[in-house]
UniProtKB/TrEMBL annotation, chain A:
Organism, as annotated: Candidatus Thiodiazotropha taylori
Post-translational modification: Binds 4 heme groups per subunit.
CC cofactor: heme
Membrane topology, record value: Single-pass membrane protein
Protein name: Cytochrome c-type protein
Principal location listed in the UniProt entry: membrane
Signal peptide: none
Cofactor notes: Binds 4 heme groups per subunit.
Binding site for heme 3: 130, 133-134
Subcellular location: Cell membrane
Pfam families: Cytochrom_NNT (PF03264)
Annotated residues for binding of heme 2: 70, 73-74, 178
UniProtKB/TrEMBL annotation, chain B:
Residues at which heme c 1 binds: 65, 79, 82-83
Family note: Belongs to the NapB family.
Subcellular location: Periplasm
Stretch forming the signal peptide: 1-23
One GO molecular-function entry: metal ion binding
Pfam families: NapB
Organism name: Candidatus Thiodiazotropha taylori
Superkingdom to which the source organism belongs: Bacteria
Binding site residues for heme c 2: 100, 119, 122-123
Name the UniProt record assigns to this protein: Periplasmic nitrate reductase, electron transfer subunit
Alphabetized UniProt keyword annotations: Electron transport, Heme, Iron, Metal-binding, Periplasm, Signal, Transport
Coiled-coil region list: none
Function: Electron transfer subunit of the periplasmic nitrate reductase complex NapAB. Receives electrons from the membrane-anchored tetraheme c-type NapC protein and transfers these to NapA subunit, thus allowing electron flow between membrane and periplasm. Essential for periplasmic nitrate reduction with nitrate as the terminal electron acceptor.
Any one cellular-component term (Gene Ontology): periplasmic space
Amino acid sequence: MNESKKKSGLFLIGVGIVAGILLWGGFNTAMEMTNTETFCISCHEMEQTVYQELQETIHFTNRTGVRATCPDCHVPKEWIHKFVRKIQATNELYHKMMGTIDTPEKYEAKRLELAQNVWRSMKKTDSRECRNCHKFVSMDLDRQTPRSSEQHDPHYWDAVDGKEPQKTCIDCHKGIAHSLPEGFDPNAEY
Amino acid sequence: MKKIALLTVAVITTMFLSTALLADVQSLRGDKLDTMAKKPANLKIQNVKGGIERSFKLQPPMVPHEVDKYEVNLKINGCMKCHSEETYEKEKAPKVGDSHYEDRNGKVLKTISSRRYFCNQCHAPQMGADPLVQNNFQGAK
């Protein structure tokens, strides 16, 4: 191999690395930008409805001042799941352009369906996004109110003993960060 | 002329005296009229296992737990997640009284009557605050 070929080869590798860093970094930064609450509520569909309701709940206002933002619950943390969710979000962009829920009235009409979508995916992942913060091993049932600890108890011991969970968070904790949809039936399987 | 002067003096004296007297007026919480009221004690809603006993017959039972998570509005009644006819057994919660399913003509309805829909109009959670005035009221047992 002569000297100039070697040089151009090295040059190409260098260009490749720099371009790779720029492209990947740019892509990741852009994706992270869409993963902020400011981005989510830049659409009035989210800002005027669910965001207003969130502010009344313990996930926004509480004793310690720690709070959950939209993506904490609605976007997975692991990269691959996050990427899949971001691809699914193109459907949301489509409906944003179509104006499917561009008034609070349209939003209300769709609320049960939209909520069911979230409940279904939460159930499928065993409430993965809840468990990013809430873990049974760190839960002190004695510090909970009697009603809570009574309900959590069997599931707590299942988790500690490493048994298959019988229930997942969302089975009981529906409508905790946003209003429950009209027509919600507490006995129905969603 | 003298009379008017006397009257004026009398009125002014009464005014001064009454403000002096008013300064001593205390509210039941111990606050004076001319100062800022004290901040109320930071009490928490009580969680009472087994419920709070009624003080008199036909008293709407008091709520022995926190209610801030439950919405009651035209769209949804959060209390009925546990206290409805369909769910009370599973949730081990007291069932809403039968009277709450009747309309004003005594007709029994399938869902809770709109007259009884807003639970917290009658059923209140308790803070455990001491009564401002002590009394010897004994509930009917």
